[in-house]
Amino acid sequence: MTESNKCIIIAEAGVNHNGRLDLALKLCDKAKEVGADIVKFQAWKTEKIITRSVAQAEYQTENTGIEESQYDMLKRLELSYDDFKIIKKHCDDIGIIFSSTADEEESLDFLIELGIPFIKVGSGDIGNISFLRYIGSKKMPVILSTGMSTLADVDISVNALKEGGATDITLLHCTTNYPCPYPDVNLNAMLTLKNAFNLPIGYSDHTLGNEVSIAAVSLGATVIEKHFTLDCTLDGPDHAASTNPEDFKKLVDSIRRVEVCLGDGIKQPTSAEKQISKVVIKHIVAAKEIKKGELFSEDNLCIKRSDTGISAARWDEVIGKPALRDYTCDEGIEDIE
User: Fold this and answer.
1) pTM here?
2) Which of 63, 88, 119, 162 has the fewest CB within 10 Å, making it most exposed?
């Protein structure tokens, strides 16, 4: 999805606007301010994605303090298409990329027309073969979250996307719990996805704190998605498990530093090390006075830090060779036959 080695950082605004356009716009402003590459929302028509009888997830009831059906909760949090048009224009104006997950075909078509740069598929649509084929038919880059799934579930979903025509797919490892306890993270599963599907990988982070996202980048994540809120104490299902602007800025800064630290992977001395090595790397020096023609031996040679002399790594080459000139004690051995 990206041609550079820079990890894409997504501020997942999700439903943390609480159904209010003004909060949604503030989330965009703050996401830009803290250095996120993308601010992402969720778009749906409630009646198209859920029946009226589905109960809330336990974490939703705990975080909202309201006992209601998922239908009623989602209806309260639903933004209109007109809202999204305003949000997209605002993002363009302030210079941050707008994106949104679509939970059904109508909203997907709307978002594509609006100008999303990729299609984000939430974990709830793992195995939704007909929808995934429809997504694939759009021939756009796809980011697929893989929470609540097995490797076999992911395989079915990737195949459906490819059957539809998708060729650019990134897989996000994810544990669908808000917040996700550290023992449930299983970050090595991200590498399992990479090895199994030979596709770019990333991490959708529902943990508290920034450590796991930073670790994911060090393991090769090309995309980091983390829930973002203006205030973790606001009412709503996801605020308590989200990251506030101050901590999100720390996350962005940490990831950018880690990217620099990862380097190009070539094991070689840096320019600074080359200078330091001149006085730190050990060399072969005379352990005592040596006369021209005398054979070098363990008795008359030693290894010390020195700014002259043959590298200690060539010890076996030097032993048994004649001295080509006189050496004083501690003088570096310079030449051999």
Assistant:
1) 0.91
2) 162
Amino acid at 160: A
Q: Which residues contact 153 (CB under 8 A, 6 or more apart)?
A: 126, 127, 146
Using alpha carbons, list the distances in angstroms from residue 70 to 67, 76, 122.
Answer: 9, 10, 17
pLDDT digits (tens, 9 = 90+) for 164-190: 999 999 999 999 999 999 999 999 999
Q: String of b and e for 308-333 (b: at least 16 CB within 10 Å)? A: ebbebeeeeebeeeebeeebeeebeb
Name residue, tokens 């198209």. 48
Which amino acid, 247? D
Classified as helix, coil or strand, 305 is strand
Residues 77, 70: Cα–Cα separation, whole Å:
10
Q: Which of 31, 8, 15 is nearest to 117 (CA)?
A: 8
Q: Name residue, tokens 């299983």.
A: 186
Instruction: With a cut of 90, say whether residue 51 has pLDDT above it.
Output: yes
Nearest partner of 194 among 151, 257, 245, judged by Cα:
151
